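[audit] Reproducing an earlier prediction to check determinism. Same input, same settings, fresh worker. If the tokens differ from the archived copy the diff job will pick it up downstream; this log only records the rerun itself.
[audit] input (210 residues):
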Amino acid sequence: MGIDRFNFSSFFNNQINALIEKQNFEIDFDKTAIPIQTHSSNVKFIKKPGIYNNCDGLITSKKYNVNLIIKVADCVPVYIYDNKTQYYGLVHSGWKGTKKHIIINALDMFVNVSKSFLKNIKICIGPHIQSCCYEVDWDVAQHFSFIKKKSFKNKWLLNLEKEIKYDIINKGILLENIYTVDICTYESLDCESFRRDGENSKRMLGIIGY
């Protein structure tokens, strides 16, 4: 990867750190929670550092002082923050998680656990493979609304960002509280991309915490 860091903290008024780092970023495991990602729609609320099995989203609160980390290399990192309750979350949303509406599960947890009001929640959609480069077959495309047929071969272009934003807005998040990063991981050599580099690709670390 060409750069060390993408920083989205300013979108959250620098009240919380929201970053993407290189995979070799030095992790403080005494202060970090990491999910074992399975492309599920499972989201867990956690109170302490550790490794959490079979989930693709974590949510916690400032009072527990835990950094949340996910691994991405084309899938969508979604950062969630409520500055009123000081709860925050991080979601890994590939096509399978997006199909299963993992972001809705995360927002339901904010409402049910932290008693958040949706109007107070801000969401950042981080770098991921954009629709310009995300070719899928019909067995995948058929599950989505924001697809475009390629004219010269039997492929569709999938727009994960629009799928996620559709879920977010319909759930009740204000449009002005959604920030999207206009970076395609496939096109940008600053990013890791499994689609571009295959087995040679590394992973980037999405991070959120105080």
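[audit] rerun output stored. Observation attached for the diff report: The chain is about 20% helix and 30% strand.
[audit] end
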